[in-house]
Specification:
about 0% strand, Leucine-rich Repeat Variant, about 60% helix
């Protein structure tokens, strides 16, 4: 409860006591005493105690409200912070195994979260006094206390990193819940001792070994001292452990040279003497990990890998060639063995040997001639493999690209797909030349091709406009929700040049049977595509009254993009911003008027009046809108940045979103880190997006972002995945979780495709 609310409550209680009945109030006691002779209560103490009592309640909403209120009370009451530190010793928990995401599971956790919300002073106290308390509690004789202490430490993000060594020691605790909490916390804190973790891959307890395998995937740099334990793990009976050990050896690079014989043995054990349909698709990830490790180890792996060219299984030969090509010039000693395979009767092996030779810098002309012949093959598999070679040989393959692109019209789905993949690697100007051919594929019988076309057209943006009409016609009949959504994304990226698609797109705005997020996206798209259309304006005005809040808000926001902004649309926005309208619609209307900027000039007087709105979050947006109408939204920067730390949750939410218009800087990072823990989903989403815009410079936010990947709200999860996708190598610890989200095909919230795109941006297979 804020101080204002507390004051109002006190006044309200006083009023009810004096005016709520016909009795005359008792006379005031003498000497400052309360009736009955009791000493008067200190209001600050009363408020403090009430909030601390809520921290210990079982009601989650009450706990979160107490965290919020105490974080503000701490600015005025000097007793709050010391009391919170003391509360870190409290042993109240939700019980064994009750460390649940999106809940506050112990009094200790509530105290820690509150201290974090108290800003720099709270963080300083956590580091100075809280960390020693938590370290001591890790040794508590009760496993429940150890479990909840570990979970609390994991919630601290960078503040808790100094405790990571202590947490790692508990990965072998006698209690399973403690061990699970320790492994989970290290995903956020980071692994301080990769070698010790690698040794756990061969632990006698199968569960410990399994958890260690999952965790080691978050370790970007593998030291040489971890190589021997990883080698030992290659013989594990658990496939996942062998795979993660191999992946880790690959990250160790040349330092893992001693593991090459082990990897060769693992490969020859895994593959049978001859290829068969049954074995080709078995353990694909494990096989990939072995070959990738050899490729990353590099030169020390060349001679042993070359010997595998004589293996009796053609699959082994094929991947040995590919691995030598991945190693590049250091693999030149394998050139003679590879040249012999250019004449192989198996076209895939011949092409792969050609690819490897080009990549190591040998027999280029001979190899390219072979690829050219394969491109002319009537067999789709052969042509597809030839295009695959072009994708991997870089500059050397440029002369073959025109012939490869002809396969966009191939009868082979593989050849068409590979041709699309080749288009995705071309400079935009070159890719735009084949948009007409790509537009023929928006109704392809293969769903993966349709999806790839949609992604490519979105990537090209306005240059893909010649495909707009085809997309518009395909939209009504497309049955795959993900693909239809992708088509709308592509049209949105094309902008005004996508007008030919409008007849197929506009009906989606009002089609009740469609997913709400698709209708909302369609509303935005039609405004961007044809901002001058009276039909678009009319459809959007009608949709502002839609029964679904997401659709109505999207329609309101879309009105702000119309240009010119018709008198009817402007009148609708001003009406929707009126105090008599519900908050979500008012908020959307003010954002729309901000987007309209000078086009909403005639509404300036009404907006200026709204800057004094009693709902301070809306008042802030009105301030931003006035600045936008005056032609420079950045004039509101001071008010927006002040709002990031406002006591009012709605003000913080508005400020976080408005910051995206102002443009976040690294100076905003401390405020953004705090907002990532906010109670509001909208605030967390906007803070995540702003953090992502800072890129790798916001690496301190990665632990918090990893936690938010489990948030209850899908918009928070989507914003978080997108933010991590912009953070490059700093986001490496989040990759396992992003893979998990990308593989969750039962998720229809938009998180899965967002995670997939984030992984692509991070360069992850």
């Amino acid at each position: 409860m804020s101080r204002f609310a507390l004051f109002a409550l006190v006044i309200g209680i006083g009023f009810s006591l004096t005016a709520g009945c016909g009795k005359k109030p008792d006379p005031a006691p003498a000497n400052g005493e309360t009736p009955g002779g009791e000493a008067p209560q200190d209001p600050a103490l009363t408020a403090r105690n009430a909030h601390f009592a809520k921290l210990k309640t079982n009601n989650q909403e009450a706990k979160r409200a107490a965290v919020e209120d105490l974080s503000w009370l701490a600015e005025d009451d000097p007793e709050v912070l010391p009391a919170l530190v003391e509360l870190l010793k409290d042993k109240g928990t939700a019980g064994a195994g009750r460390t649940l995401t999106n809940q506050i599971n112990s009094t200790r956790e509530a105290a820690a979260l509150t201290l974090l919300q108290c800003g720099k002073k709270g963080e300083a106290l956590l580091k100075e006094k809280g960390v020693p308390i938590l370290r001591a509690e890790l040794a508590d004789k009760s496993p429940v206390i150890r479990e909840h202490t570990i979970y609390t430490i994991g919630q601290l993000g960078t503040v808790g990193v100094s405790l990571a060594p202590d947490v790692q020691k508990l990965c072998t605790d006698t209690d399973a819940n403690v061990r699970g909490a320790a492994f989970d916390a290290l995903r956020v804190l980071g692994v301080p001792d990769p070698t010790a973790l690698a040794k756990l891959l061969t632990h006698d307890d199968a569960e410990i070994a399994r958890l260690a395998a999952e965790l080691i995937g978050t370790v970007a740099e593998i030291p040489k001292s971890a190589v021997d334990p990883l080698r030992a793990a290659l013989t594990s009976a658990n496939t996942n452990i062998r795979r993660e050990a191999a992946n880790a050896l690959g990250r160790a690079g040349p330092n893992a040279a001693s593991a090459v014989p082990d990897l060769i043995t693992a490969i020859t054990t895994l593959y049978p003497a001859e290829a068969s349909v049954e074995t080709n698709s078995e353990n694909l990830d494990l096989k990939f990990a072995y070959w990738q490790a050899l490729g990353r180890i590099g030169e020390p792996a060349v001679a042993p890998t070359t010997k595998l060219l004589d293996h009796t299984n053609p699959l082994v030969q094929f991947y040995a060639m590919r691995t030598l090509g991945n190693i590049g010039p250091p693999a030149k000693p394998a050139a003679d063995a590879l040249k012999k395979r250019l004449a192989d009767r198996d076209p895939q092996l011949a092409l792969e040997s050609a690819c490897a030779l080009i990549r190591i810098g040998e027999a280029k002309d001979e190899a390219l001639a072979l690829v050219q012949r394969a491109l002319d093959s009537p067999v789709g598999l052969v042509a597809g493999e030839a295009i695959n070679v072009i994708l991997r040989i870089g500059e050397a393959g440029k002369p073959l690209i025109p012939a490869a692109l002809k396969h966009l019209a191939s009868t082979s789905a593989l050849a068409r797909y590979k041709a699309l993949e080749l288009v995705s690697t071309l400079p935009p100007a070159e890719a735009a030349k084949v948009v007409p051919e790509m537009s023929n594929l928006v109704t392809d019988e293969d769903r993966y091709i349709r999806e790839a076309v949609g992604q490519l057209l979105q990537q090209l943006g306005p240059a893909a406009a010649p495909a707009a009409e085809a997309l518009g016609k395909a939209l009504p009949d497309e049955k795959e929700p993900d693909i239809r959504n992708q088509f709308v994304e592509a049209l949105l990226a094309m902008g005004p040049d996508a007008k030919p698609a409008l007849p197929g797109l506009l009906p989606l705005v009002s089609e009740k049977g469609l997913p709400y997020h698709l209708r909302a996206k369609a509303a935005l798209a039609v405004a961007v595509i044809d901002p001058t259309s009276p039909d678009v304006s009319s459809a959007l005005i009608k949709a502002t009254a839609d029964s679904d809040n997401t659709v109505s808000s999207a329609a309101i926001l879309a009105l702000g993009k119309l240009n010119p902004l018709s008198p009817e649309a402007l009148a609708a926005l001003v009406k929707l911003a009126n105090p008599r309208v519900k908050y979500p619609s008012r908020l959307a209307a003010l954002k729309a008027l901000t987007a309209a900027g000078p086009r909403a000039k005639s509404a300036k007087a009404e907006l200026e009046a709204m800057t004094n709105d009693p709902l301070k979050g809306l008042a802030l947006w009105a301030t931003v809108a006035v600045a936008a109408i005056d032609g420079d939204v950045k004039k509101s920067a001071v008010a927006v940045r002040a709002g990031l730390n406002d006591r009012n949750a709605l003000v913080r939410s508005s400020a976080a979103e408005a910051l995206l218009l102002i443009g976040p800087t690294t100076d905003d990072l401390p405020a953004l880190l705090k907002l990532l823990r906010d109670v509001s989903e909208t605030t967390k989403s906007a803070a995540a997006t702003a953090t992502g815009q800072l890129g790798a410079s916001a690496k301190d936010a990665v632990p918090l972002l990893i936690r938010l990947l489990d948030d209850r709200d899908p918009e928070v999860r989507v914003a978080t995945t997108e933010a991590l996708g912009h953070m490059g190598d700093a986001a490496f610890p989040a990759i396992p979780k992003l893979k998990e989200l990308a593989g969750n095909y039962s998720d229809n919230s938009g998180t899965r495709p967002a995670a997939k795109k984030a992984l692509e941006k991070l360069g992850v297979r």
